[in-house]
Each structure stands twice: as C-alpha cells, then as structure tokens.
C-alpha cells in the first residue's frame, strides 16, 4: 500500500529503456576476441606424444572468452546494463567523452606504423607519449623524455634479457 503523503511514482520511473549500445559493443568485442583467439589456437600444431599439448591452455582461454562474450551479449540483448559501482560518481546515462580513448588508440596505431621504419624505441615512445598526454600530462619535454627512457629500457630488457629480436630502426648502430 502506498503512502498518501508521497507523490505518486510515474510509470516506468527508474527503468532505463532501450538497448545499451556501449554495453553491446563491449560484449560483441569480447565475442570477436574469443573467436580470434580460437582461430589462432586451432593453428597451433599439436604436440607429439603429448597428453596435454601446447593447445590446451590457449584453447581453455579462447573458449572461455568466447563463452563469456556470448553470455554478455545475451545479457545485453535481454536489457542488462553494466552499472557503475556505488563509489563511482558517474552518470551512466551521460554521453561518454571519447577524446582520451581516441588519442590513445591513435597513438597506438601511429606507433605501430612507425615500428618498422623508425624502430621499436621510437614507435613505442610515441605510444607511451600519447597515453601520458591522454591522462593529462602537458609537460611535453618531460613526457617525451620519460617515454623515450621507458621505451629504451623495454627494448634492452626484451632484446638483451629475453633474447628477442626487435627492429632497431634509426638507432640501428647505436643499440
């Protein structure tokens, strides 16, 4: 029974209508990731005389990711939405600001394009720089220096410590 001193609650109050497009995109992205992982996993050659071969764990991860993405997609199509945690001060209905993710993605794509011609250190430094800039650092010389140092340390650890071959690019004779 309702309290007569309170105003009536309009029908549909509290319910958010429609399909959540961002949630659907995330769910479909997880499905796509799981499918790509599964395709890659099935291309791993099976080990000789092995009960547990090199495919087992990647297969578990890829099938699990595909299953999770499918469950997320079904949930979104049934009206489910990702809700922010209670301590988050956000409005789930507010329009998202995509400038920072776009800057990070652009920096990643530019850095990846520069890996071969200019080398790992410079390409990776571009990626680090754009991430720092997207997170609000505006002191460009400091940010560029830190990005170059981190990229150089990463290069040395990967090539000397792990024995990987990475493109040196412009720094071919120096590194």
UniProtKB/TrEMBL annotation:
Residues 25-167 form the DUF1468 domain. It holds the Pfam family TctB. The chain crosses the membrane at residues 24-44, 56-77, 102-128, 140-158. Keywords: Membrane, Transmembrane, Transmembrane helix. The keyword Transmembrane applies. This is DUF1468 domain-containing protein. It comes from Deinococcus indicus. The lineage of its organism: Bacteria, Thermotogati, Deinococcota, Deinococci, Deinococcales.
């Amino acid at each position: 029974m309702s309290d007569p001193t309170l105003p009536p609650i309009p029908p549909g109050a509290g319910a958010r209508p429609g399909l959540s497009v961002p949630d659907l995109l995330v769910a479909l992205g997880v499905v796509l990731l799981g499918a790509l992982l599964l395709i890659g996993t099935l291309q791993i050659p099976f080990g000789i005389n092995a009960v547990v071969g090199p495919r087992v764990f990647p297969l578990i991860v890829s099938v699990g990711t595909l299953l999770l993405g499918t469950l997320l997609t079904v949930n979104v199509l049934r009206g489910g939405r990702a809700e922010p945690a209670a301590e988050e001060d956000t409005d789930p209905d507010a329009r998202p600001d995509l400038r920072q993710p776009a800057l990070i993605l652009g920096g990643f794509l530019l850095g990846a394009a520069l890996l071969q011609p200019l080398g790992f250190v410079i390409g990776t430094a571009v990626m680090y720089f754009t991430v720092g800039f997207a997170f609000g650092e505006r002191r460009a010389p400091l940010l560029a220096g830190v990005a170059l140092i981190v990229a150089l340390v990463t290069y040395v650890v990967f090539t000397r410590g792990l024995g990987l071959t990475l493109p040196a690019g412009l720094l071919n004779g120096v590194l």
